[in-house]
Each structure stands twice: as C-alpha cells, then as structure tokens.
Amino acid sequence: MESKIHELKYAISKDIVTAKRCLLAIYKYQTLDEKQSQATIKVNGFGFSKTDSTVLSKIAEEIINGNEPMDKECTICMKLMPKYAGQWLKIKQMEKNDEQINVLNG
C-alpha cells in the first residue's frame, strides 16, 4: 500500500488532471459545514488540513462551478494535494466496495 501511495503522490505532483481528481475526491468528503465555511471543523480522517482548507476548497468550488483554475492555483494544487494521496486511496477503496455491494444487492 505504501508504494501505491508513493506512486499517487508522484502522479499528483506532476499531473494537474490527477491533482484535480484527488482534490475533488477529498472535497466531496468534507462535511457540509466545512464546505460552507471553507474551514476544517471536524477531525474525521477525511478532508483538508486547517492550513489548506480555505485555498483548496476555493479551487475545488471553481472546478465544480465549471471554471478552470488559473496556473497559480494549479501549481498550488499540485504542491498541496500529494499529502492527501492516502486519503484518496481510502476513498477510492470505499467507493469500489460500495459499487460491489450495490451490484450484489442488485
């Protein structure tokens, strides 16, 4: 698992598409209060750190609203998001498990 996290960190730091996918996955798991305030409120193992929450939430919201981030924001995203590779891997696994359960439940 550690090598997979290392690979993801590298990919996130070098590829803006991968960085944005990670950003949006983590943002999706922010609580509603955290999304509205663009701050970290709950310590639940998912979401952005207090220092990253404002800037990363703003970038995520821009993308969700159909706006492409500026070059500076892309650079920030690729710099900050690698530390969230482990969370993203957990999210991907949870979503995969949910899909499997849905298939089994028909």
3D architecture notes:
This protein has 106 residues and is mostly helical. The protein has one domain (2-105). Helices cover 74% and strands 0% of the residues. The chain has six helices and no strands. It has helices at residues 2-14, 16-28, 32-37, 50-64, 71-80, 85-105. The longest helix has 21 residues, at 85-105. The radius of gyration is 14 Å and the shape is globular. The mean pLDDT is 85.
Largest sheet: none
* Share of helix, binned: over 70%
Order of helices and strands: HHHHHH
Shape: globular
Could you tell me how far the N terminus lies from the C terminus, measured between alpha carbons in angstroms? Answer: 30 Å
Low-confidence stretches: none
Radius of gyration: 14 Å
**Structure summary, number of beta strands:** 0
Average of pLDDT: 85
Secondary-structure content class: mainly alpha
> How many separate helices?
6
What is the percentage of strand-forming residues? under 5%
What is the total domain count?
1
